[in-house]
Design brief:
Elements lengths: L8 H17 L11 H12 L5 H14 L2 H4 L3 H14 L3 H18 L1 H11 L3 H13 L6 H17 L11 H14 L20
Protein name: Exportin-2
InterPro entries: ARM-like, ARM-type_fold, XPO2_C
Organism: Triatoma infestans
Length: 207
């Protein structure tokens, strides 16, 4: 899709929905020809950078994770996380935090709990601890929407039940912490408070 089409805000939602439809209906060979992963990621990067459209970026990348062949998307995954953390560091909003938490849980469901911890820690040592302390603990209860909360609950359950890293000394303390987060999601209503913006610093320049 021509870049100029995305310049009009009124076009963005319809174009994003159209792209997701292409992705869902493409067969494996089309991801090497007409539905190029790198082109889709360029759109994702543009969407995720803006407060008004970041939710469309999350919708697109989760659609790609669901539908793209793993060998096509896997080489780009670390860069995807870097883009998400760059936006988190530069412009953290409650809406964005809810979106990235659901993305994390969707990733865990798709690629596994150990893979998730390993990829975030490859970006910055002990990044997983920062994610739990500064995102999951204060903000998981803010996740709203039936589908989004189901993804969060299922992802956290998989993280707790499958991750070898939560059984090791470095992250052993977080098993009980994340269990409490999961129980709260199951038992308590949505927290509708809006947090003031806070810093979430990732040293992306030295990655």
């Amino acid at each position: 899709l021509a870049p100029g089409l995305w310049e009009r805000p009124s076009n963005v939602r319809a174009l994003a929905q159209l792209l997701r439809a292409y992705v869902r209906n493409a067969d494996a060979t089309q991801f090497q020809t007409t539905v190029k992963v790198d082109g889709l990621l360029g759109v994702f990067q543009k969407l995720i950078a803006t407060r008004s459209n970041d939710h469309e970026g999350f919708n697109l990348i989760q659609c790609m994770m669901e539908c793209c062949p793993n060998h096509e998307l896997e080489p780009f995954m670390k860069q995807i996380f870097l883009l998400l953390f760059q936006r988190l560091s530069s412009s953290k909003t409650t809406k964005y935090v809810k979106g990235i938490l659901v993305f994390f849980c969707f990733y865990i469901l798709k690629y596994g709990a150990n893979n998730f911890i390993e990829i975030v820690d490859s970006i910055q040592p002990m990044m997983f601890a920062m994610i739990v302390d500064r995102l999951f603990i204060p903000d998981a209860q803010k996740i709203s929407g039936k589908i989004e909360r189901k993804i969060a609950i299922a992802g956290l359950a998989k993280l707790l039940s499958e991750s070898k890293h939560l059984k090791e000394n470095m992250y052993l303390q977080y098993w009980n912490v994340l269990t409490k987060v999961l129980i709260n999601l199951l038992e308590l209503p949505v927290d509708e408070t809006i947090n003031p913006e806070e810093d979430f610093i990732v040293d992306v320049e030295n990655m």
